[in-house]
Inverse folding.
């Protein structure tokens, strides 16, 4: 397989803007993130590295590692981000935005 065709996956990440702390995980099959329980669990697992008491904005991001397209969404508190329904819907929305950029390009979306 040509290196250019290798699936590098999508990265789901959380960053605290104040401390610059980051937690990330790569998903080679990002379609799993469309399942609400999977998405909310993924966000909860990433958030375990944050204490949630630090003031400042938390950023949820989705990046296509094949082409660098990345989108993010800000949350005023970690608790806002950790609401299961909010987390699942936000991940789905971000993946859809990234996929929209991908479909405009010539390259197939990784893992789909």
């Amino acid at each position: 397989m040509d290196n250019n065709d290798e699936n590098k996956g999508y990265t789901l990440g959380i960053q605290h803007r104040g401390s610059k702390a980051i937690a990330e995980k790569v998903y080679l099959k990002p379609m799993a993130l469309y399942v609400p329980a999977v998405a909310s669990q993924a966000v909860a697992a990433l958030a375990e590295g944050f204490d949630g008491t630090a003031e400042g904005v938390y950023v949820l991001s989705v990046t296509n590692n094949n082409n660098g397209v990345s989108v993010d969404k800000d949350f005023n508190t970690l608790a806002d981000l950790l609401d299961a329904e909010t987390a699942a819907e936000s991940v789905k929305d971000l993946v859809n935005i990234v996929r929209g950029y991908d479909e405009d390009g010539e390259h197939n979306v990784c893992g789909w």
